[in-house]
């Protein structure tokens, strides 16, 4: 039996000179609501003292691709940034627009499972009777 109600799963990915982007997406057949809540972006072991710009690539209300910088990290002045559970809906791509990283992104994948529609219909009928 599939669980119903909210569920949170730890999320993390790393952007480097070799892996400059990561796309978070869910199965198109999944009828649950998915939210990615980012809490932290930080430089990790091996990072150089250079500007590392992380941007989020998504779609606006006109379904046009847009890229928005969300962090500019540098070892000597700002090695990490708290994003206070910045919420995004998938699909969303994180891209290392400048620098070589490694940059780690961490947060929560929140899943809201929907009730089975046929079960809801049965409940409505029993209430009417």
What does this structure look like?
- The chain is mainly β.
- The protein has a single domain (7-113), classed as Jelly Rolls (Sandwich).
- Helices cover 9% and strands 54% of the residues.
- It is built from one helix and eight strands.
- The protein has one helix at 117-128, and strands at 5-15, 21-24, 33-43, 52-59, 65-73, 80-88, 92-98, 103-113.
- Strands 1-8-3-6 form a four-stranded antiparallel beta sheet, with no helix packed on it. Strands 2-7-4-5 form a four-stranded antiparallel beta sheet, with no helix packed on it.
- Strand 4 (52-59) and strand 5 (65-73) form a beta hairpin.
- The radius of gyration is 19 Å and the shape is globular.
- The two termini are 28 Å apart.
- Residues 116-122 have low confidence and may be disordered.
- This is Nucleoplasmin-3.
- Belongs to the nucleoplasmin family.
- Interacts with NPM (via N-terminus). Forms a pentamer with NPM at a ratio 4:1 (NPM3/NPM). Two pentamers form a decamer.
Task: Give average pLDDT, whole number.
Answer: 86
Decide which structural class fits the backbone: mainly beta
CATH architecture grouping: Sandwich
| Helix fraction by DSSP (H/I, runs of at least 4) | under 10%
User: Helix segment count?
Assistant: 1
Task: Name the beta content range.
Answer: over 45%
Total beta strands: 8
Main sheet: strands, sense, barrel: 4 strands, antiparallel
What topology, given as strand order, has the largest sheet? 1-8-3-6
Provide keyphrases for this structure.
Jelly Rolls, 54% strand, 129 residues, 4-stranded antiparallel β-sheet, mainly beta, globular
């Amino acid at each position: 039996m599939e669980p119903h109600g909210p569920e949170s799963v730890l999320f993390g990915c790393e952007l480097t000179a070799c892996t400059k982007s990561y796309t978070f997406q869910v199965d198109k057949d999944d009828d649950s609501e998915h939210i990615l809540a980012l809490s932290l972006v930080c430089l990790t072991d091996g990072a150089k003292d250079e500007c590392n710009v992380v941007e989020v690539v998504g779609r606006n209300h006109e379904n046009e691709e847009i890229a928005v910088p969300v962090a500019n990290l540098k070892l000597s002045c700002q090695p990490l940034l708290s994003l206070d559970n910045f919420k995004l809906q998938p699909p969303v791509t994180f891209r290392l627009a400048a620098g070589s990283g490694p940059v780690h992104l961490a947060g929560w994948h929140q899943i809201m499972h929907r009730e089975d529609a046929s079960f809801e219909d049965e409940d409505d009928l029993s209430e009417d009777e």
